[in-house]
Every structure is written in structure tokens, then in C-alpha cells.
Design a protein that fits this description.
single chain; alpha+beta; Aminopeptidase; 2 domains; 12 strands; 28% helix; elongated
Length: 284
């Protein structure tokens, strides 16, 4: 790293400067990112980001690289790692990552996790060199066209679907089959905002499925989570959502390759857009 480049806490920079640099760093990325100060604020809340522990690289007073550090209990998460094009291949990303690891140790975190897109070989190799271990593959899925035309009642005749408060349903997800959720799907209602909606499926009066989604009615929305004890119940829940919002493209973030709902999502018309590796660094 050039001697003129220094590392500082992200909290010391204005949100406008941070957003501008991050957008520049990701402009030519595999999946471009464009934030505003408002969406950065939402990201910080949703992903539990500690801006004081997060780091930026400065050259001539300008931000040329950044890395966000999230904290939940004894776990940490790295997000928003990037370097603007003119400053790449100078060791800046490595230095930022080492600083973030040092911050995690100072905060007594036991693990650090992150996700890296499959095509980003340089970043993947850097994380391996720093001691990260690949834990699983995560898929970003999108449904552009609803292939579930059958009414939910015909898909699962023994299932009754009801609209219920998302906050209540979040606390019941763990009662259904599933896998440990990646960082960006460990939701709370406060993190998801005002538009989180929920459907619950019941069979014989017993809960058998849950579907949580961002129901703002816009052209693009997020399927936050879906879990069910059988494919028919899962399909019925997805059909209810997709048929209620027939013109909306739904995205489902970071579905684990071994999630029992993955075949159901694919049958409903969700297709793989991005493959990521989830990686973990043990600090304890």
C-alpha cells in the first residue's frame, strides 16, 4: 500500500463522501451497487453495521477504499469491501481487511463472516490467504415470471393460508424445517422496515408454513423468507404471494444450496442470478 494512503474509521467521514466512494468502487463490479445517504442509513440499520469499527482508506483526503464491519453478539460480518479502480492492486484491500480483523479482535468477536461472488477470484483468494474458510454456497434468486398459475387451495387442499403480522411470524420460523440463515437474512421487523408482510399456512390448525416478503407493491420486491414442512404448503404460500403481486419481480437473497425450500422456489419460477461463497474466519 502506498505510504500516502491512511486508514481511518468510517464514522469520521461524511455519509455523502462514503456513498460516493462506494458507488465508484462498485460501478464496474459484477453487480453494480448504487447507494444514497438514505439507503446507506438503511443498510447500516439492517445489517447491524458499526461505522466506528468500519474502515476507509484515504489518499489525499479522498476515500479510495472501504470495508464495513457488522456486529451481532460475538459474531462479525464484513460488507461493502471495495477499492476504487485507480487504486486497485496496491494492497489497499488487504490492509483494510487486516484492520477490520484487528477491530473484530478488539471488540472480542469470535468469528468474522462474509460473502464473495463466485466470479471474484481475486477477493476469494485474498480471503483464503487471510485464513477464511468457505462454509457453503449461497444463491441469489429472482422470479421474473410467475409459473404458479394454480390457485393455492388446489396446490395444497388441506392447507389454509392466512395473512398475519410479520413480527409474530418471525419468531415462529425456527419451528419449521430450514438451515441457519446467512447474515443478510437474519431479519427483525425493525430492520426490514414498514412493508414487511406475512402469510402463515395451517394444516389441521397447526402451523406448517410461513412466507415473509416486502409487500410495498413496487415493481421489485424481496422475498425475505419462506419455510414449510412440505413442498405443497410451500408452493401454496408462494402462489398466494406471486398471484397477489402478479407484476412484481421478487428477489430472494442468499438461499443456501442445502435449504430444503430451494427445489420449491425453483418450481415456483425462481431462477439463480448470482452464486456466492459464504466464508468464515475463526478469531477465538
Amino acid at each position: 500500500m502506498e505510504s500516502s494512503t491512511t486508514i481511518r474509521a468510517a464514522a469520521e467521514c461524511s455519509s455523502a463522501a462514503f456513498v460516493s466512494a462506494l458507488n465508484t468502487a462498485y460501478a464496474d463490479y459484477f453487480i453494480p451497487i448504487h447507494l444514497t445517504p438514505s439507503s446507506l442509513e438503511n443498510l447500516v440499520r439492517r445489517e447491524s453495521i458499526d461505522m466506528q469499527a468500519s474502515r476507509v482508506a484515504l489518499s489525499g483526503g479522498e476515500i479510495v477504499g472501504m470495508g464495513l464491519l457488522g456486529r451481532r453478539g460475538s459474531r462479525g460480518w464484513i460488507g461493502g469491501m471495495g477499492v476504487i479502480p485507480d487504486y486497485r492492486r496496491q494492497g489497499i484491500a488487504r490492509h483494510i481487511m487486516r484492520e477490520l480483523i484487528a477491530q473484530a479482535r478488539k471488540l472480542s468477536l469470535e468469528t468474522l463472516q462474509l460473502e464473495v461472488i463466485q466470479q471474484n477470484k481475486a477477493a476469494y483468494n485474498l480471503y483464503l490467504e487471510l485464513g477464511y474458510v468457505t462454509s457453503r454456497q449461497l444463491l441469489v434468486l429472482a422470479c421474473h415470471q410467475n409459473s404458479l398459475r394454480t390457485p393455492p387451495k388446489e396446490l395444497a387442499p388441506d392447507v389454509v393460508i392466512r395473512s398475519e403480522a410479520a413480527e409474530a411470524l418471525l419468531g415462529r420460523l425456527d419451528a419449521l424445517p430450514g438451515v441457519s440463515r446467512p447474515w443478510q437474512r437474519e431479519y427483525s421487523v425493525g430492520q426490514m422496515g414498514d412493508h414487511l408482510q406475512g402469510y402463515a399456512a395451517y394444516r389441521g390448525g397447526q402451523l406448517c408454513g410461513i412466507c415473509l416478503f416486502n409487500g410495498s407493491g413496487s415493481m421489485n420486491a424481496e422475498l425475505a423468507d419462506v419455510a414449510a414442512d412440505a413442498e405443497a404448503a410451500g408452493l401454496a404460500l408462494l402462489a398466494r404471494m406471486l398471484q397477489t403481486y402478479p407484476t412484481t419481480t421478487f428477489t430472494c437473497l442468499n438461499v443456501s444450496w442445502d435449504d430444503p425450500m430451494l427445489p420449491t422456489l425453483r418450481r415456483a419460477g425462481f431462477e439463480e442470478m448470482i452464486t456466492q461463497y459464504e466464508m468464515v474466519l475463526e478469531l477465538s
